[in-house]
Amino acid sequence: MLKSLDPRVNRLNIPLEEAAHAQKNKLDQFETYEVFVQTKEDKPFEHVGIVHAPNEEMAFLFAKEQYTRRGMFCISLCVIKTENIRVSDYSENQKDIYDTFEGKYSGKTTYSFEVFHLIKRGKQHKYEGNVQAKNFEDALLAARDTYPRNKPVLNVWVVKSEDIFVSDEEDQDLWDTLQEKKYRDAIDYRAADKIKAFKEKQHEH
Amino acid sequence: MNTEAIKELVYKMADDLLILGHRNSEWTGFGPLLEEDIAFSSMAQDKVGQSWQMYKILHELGDSEPDTVAFMRNANQFHNAQFVELPNGEYDFSLIRHFLFDSAALLRYQMLTESSYTPLANLTKKIKGEAKYHSMHAKIWMKQLGSATEESIQRLQNALDEAMPYALGLFEPSPYEAHLIKDKIFAGEEALQILWQKEVESIIEETQLILPDWNSLIPALGGRNGQHTEHLQPLLDEMSEVFKVDPSADW
Fold first, then answer.
1. What are the structural domain ranges in chain A?
2. Rama region for A138: left / alpha / beta (φ>0; ψ in -120 to 50; rest)
3. What pTM value is reported for the model?
4. What is the ipTM of this complex?
5. Mutation to test the B interface, candidates A4, A8, A172, most B Cβ within 10 Å
6. CA–CA gap between residue A106 and residue A158 (Å, rounded)
7. Do B127 and A177 lie within an 8 Å CB cutoff?
8. Which domain holds residue B151?
9. Distances, alpha carbon B146 to alpha carbons B35, B84, B143, B200, B214, in Å
């Protein structure tokens, strides 16, 4: 049996010779969902990362613990299945990606879309606003005509409003937690002085 | 204020949280997928944190320091329900216990926000947000696995049948029920159990699981009086191993 310093591992009685794993299907991972967090009433939703999950409800569950736990302010959280987000090309050399779009916005209001902008490389996409359009391409053109662009937009994400799973307003208390959480932080275990003293002692010998 | 009645109430809540928090933390690193491992571990940590706050209330009522109370007692001095000390088993059992326990915990906290005993009312107002997430997490898993595949449904059903008599032990009446109700400290285990059964029924209805007949169940009682299964003492030994190396050390 596998021996470990962790008693939980020993209790699993794992044979030393690892049994052959059952054949797995390729691509058996759950799908990914993009997670967006709103930290304050007057701040836009901002992309924070992804989670794997079997459906959007579970993606929401996982996202809450993954991205809005420690020392992070959050008043609302939303998840969007990655495949439902249409991503524009990326622009280079500080050019505005909108300037590369050709065509004319139809003015149709068949679907409602939400638009996210990336303003700086290495930063996250932020929510810009809502547009009505007949399809994704049309939504990009609508966004181009709608939003003022003080700074060049490097990349645009567009998603149908109906594909967004957002927390209920009444669930804001999910983020009310005990303030006193110092015991969770490694910083509370002040060992530096002891380690220093130990090293000095070692040195003397 | 009836201090003995309050202590009995707070001790059983704190011990439930500490023991289940420790049990659930045994999943850390072994969870079925990374995101769930993190979420389940975080909730375990919330529970230990909540128990600590309750031990602090008991400390203010004259009992020992929270660490001493948590780590230096023997099994027969713990007031947790036997339900929370049972080994984790497979994830199906842990999820069912999570669902049954946390639905009760959330309802209990909601009731206690109205408590005439201010420290408890204030604390439960602070922690009911965490409990709401825990309960939401459990319910979504129930709905997901309770209607997914033949295997998932059967596994949850077996776990539910096994867990239910123990879950009823959560509502073991205290000798002070009448005092607690009269002094408006807590509306009582019976009132809580009625709300809880309704809640459990409403969730199970949305799955393909079958609830056992409430009347046919024999509750596993005794935990509130320090009568425990053989599983509690080994848990305590493991949990307090480091603390007992040097109880005076400042961590």
1. 29-169
2. alpha
3. 0.88
4. 0.85
5. A8
6. 16
7. yes
8. 3-245
9. 20, 22, 5, 13, 20
